[in-house]
Structure of Flippase GtrA:
Amino acid sequence: MNRRKLGELIRQEAVIQLIKYGVIGILGLVVDFGVFTVLSVFLHWNAELANFISSTAGLINNFFWNSYTNFKVHDHLIRRFVEYYLIGQITTLFTTVCLFIFVEQLHQDKIIVKTVATLVATLIQFVVNKVITFKK
């Protein structure tokens, strides 16, 4: 196989992984936003605390789906999970700061802020997780 064909295959695989990552991310968003909504809207918890808990639930969900169905790496699961979780919590910190600034300080809608911040965080997570966490 020549270099050009190999490069095309690698790019195709990355695109397929990004699409799968997005689909898995949607599942994680359902978990994340479901927990966030219950805690922050129905139980009236602080948005930042609700965000930390809901993000953790989504991260756990997404790690196992990505590990087994997307990147197909099953070795060193504890190490990979710790890396995935730490990367996820760094981006959770980003969304939490966004919630604090835009909801608490600027009085914007918490669901809209959470949505935009989560989309940005997801793109960052994909790149870092592909290069670090799920590296074969």
